[in-house]
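Dear colleagues,

For the upcoming journal club I promised to circulate an example of a predicted protein-ligand complex. I picked one with guanosine-5'-monophosphate because it came up in last month's discussion. The inputs are reproduced below in full, followed by the predicted structure.
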Amino acid sequence: MAGRVVVVSGPSGVGKGTVIRALLGRRPELFLSVSATTRPRRPDEVHGVHYRFLDDAAFDALARSGGLLEWADYAGRRYGTPAAPVMEATAAGADVLLEIEVQGAGQVRERCPGALLILIVPPSLDALAERLHRRGTEEPEHVAARLEAARRELAQAGLFDHVVVNDRLEDAVDELDRIIGASRR
Ligand code: ADP
Ligand code: 5GP
């Protein structure tokens, strides 16, 4: 049986990466897609592991050749999902997780009708702002752009099959695990 595409979306800083890491610990059979981006690498990130870091020309070439399943502009940078690894993994029967923002989730909804779309939301916008500040990976003006994007993203909840509140981390991981388990049957 072919695997499914599982989109985990939500505003920057909501805890997608943290929740997904915990989920992969429980479900090592899941395949995590590595996105391409034109954003600069953060010091703790590894090319090919966290992202494929591309310059604008290389990203354009990949997008123009039809190599991206979806892509979006986010906070002034581009991000996209390389299509080939997703197709190969699903054809081999693996479920593939895409950790992407909301515009990309909409494109996946159109291109992969069987995809499962999950939105992770914060308990409040104040909690989101605090997490983004505490993570400390962005300059203050970029934090503001991400919070602005968050308002737009949270307004798109109707696009998703499930909405999970990441208040207590363990509860959010339990719920995501349950949703993915239930939808396999
Ligand atoms: P995203 O991948 O959505 O941008 P991260 O996983 O990087 O978000 O999480 C942003 C920050 O919030 C991190 O510092 C992380 O440790 C913290 N965090 C994640 N989940 C929770 C939670 N349930 N409660 C409090 N802090 C959290
Ligand atoms: P960050 O710069 O914090 O790593 O990511 C910024 C936003 O881009 C996050 O919401 C993240 O989920 C999203 N993102 C990461 N990869 C992709 C991708 O391949 N496609 C899309 N549409 N969004 C992505």
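Two points we might discuss: The longest helix spans residues 169-184. The two ends are 12 Å apart (CA to CA).

See you all on Thursday,
B. R.
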